[in-house]
Amino acid sequence: MSLNFRFGVISDLHIGLPQTIEDSPHRFHLVELSVSALESALTHLSQLDLDFLLIPGDLTQDGEPDNHTWLSQRLAQLPFPSYVIPGNHDVISPIPTDTCIGLQEFPGYYPKFGYQNPEQLYYTCALLPGVRLIALNSNQFDLAGYQLGILDDQQLAWLQTVLEETVDELVLVMVHHNVLEHLPDQTQNPVGKRYMLDNAPKLINLLQAHNVQLVFTGHLHVQNIAHQNGLYDVTTGSLVSYPHPYRVIQVQQQAEQTQVEIESHRLRSLPDWPDLQTTSRQMMGQRSTRFMTHFLTQPPLNLPVEKATTLAPQLSDFWATVADGDPVLSYPELPEPVQQYFEAFSHSGVADNQLIISLQT
């Protein structure tokens, strides 16, 4: 069997129609341009003869019914099928409220985009002959209503059954929370840990036992590809956050070799945003002081607030550089422990934006 197909990945759309957007001066992502950003990306992708589109969560700003309805109707107009999963912003409450849908309502908004069973928050389907998608739900709530990033036991058991029954198919897995670490010691850092799947080791072991090698995630708003023992976690930055990226992926399989070519694109301009890249990066830097101050006070640095406040402005470019992918960071003016810590976020391992992967057989 030979495969030759192309698909797109857009993540963390944060669709917000004007009447649903609340002002937040510290927000990194630019929800006010979410509709025009998606339209621009879809215009480009619609010209590429794609076989399908994956959207790994955070479809809406905060689970608003109007935003879910609008997106479902817009995706139905595309010349290729789309497949979605919920992100933490799509189902912020276990039960519906006046402003957001409940967790169990999510599949009902997307019956044409993977959810053939309205009672189940995860699914599998054949994308093409010889290609299977497994779409997982990583959003759960504890008894107090606190949102978790975890796969429940029932879903893991279902996944094991699906993998055991899958024969001679290339499997793509999509889940919102990160499966592999995309930042140094991400599972140990209080800030980075909340973007990780809480029971990622269970999922990793299960996928590796069945030779699944490609996972597509979102949530972190950075361009990064992590690799561990043959498993690749391709996380795609947010379309409404610098650098406003999306990906096009070409898969070719012949005989015993499967090659995956990952190509990244980014939005350069939008109506009223003629130089989106420059303006967006500057805005992220201007809004970063509060975030970086908090980051500096957390483990492992644990700086006093007063010290963190003085250092944060010198790190205004940090998150934008990390979000860019393939970061190169240098902070010679910072105290040595702080300098070493942040420079460790510089690129290592596989490339984040343009990469060719040869899958193991």
Indicate the topology.
Blueprint: E1 3-9, H1 34-45, E2 52-55, H2 65-75, E3 82-84, H3 106-109, E4 123-128, E5 131-135, E6 139-141, E7 147-149, H4 153-165, E8 170-174, H5 190-193, H6 200-209, E9 214-217, E10 224-228, E11 231-235, E12 245-254, E13 257-266, H7 276-286, H8 288-297, H9 305-311, H10 318-324, H11 336-343, E14 355-359
Parallel strand pairs: 1-2, 2-3, 5-8, 8-9, 9-11
Antiparallel strand pairs: 1-12, 4-5, 6-7, 10-11, 12-13, 13-14
Helix pairs in contact: 8-9
Ranges with pLDDT <50 over ≥5 residues?
A: none
| Distance linking N and C termini | 13 Å
Share in helix: 25-40%
CATH superfamily of the largest domain: Metallo-dependent phosphatases
Protein structure class: alpha/beta
Number of strands: 14
Give the CATH class of the largest domain. Alpha Beta
How many DSSP H or I helices? 11
Q: How would you sum up the global shape?
A: globular
* CATH fold description of the largest domain: Purple Acid Phosphatase, chain A, domain 2
Average pLDDT works out at 96
Beta percentage is 15-25%
Widest β-sheet, arrangement of strands:
3-2-1-12-13-14
Strand count, sense and barrel status of the largest sheet are: 6 strands, mixed
Radius of gyration: 20 Å
Count the domains.
2
What is the CATH architecture annotation of the largest domain?
4-Layer Sandwich
Note the run of SSEs as H and E: EHEHEHEEEEHEHHEEEEEHHHHHE
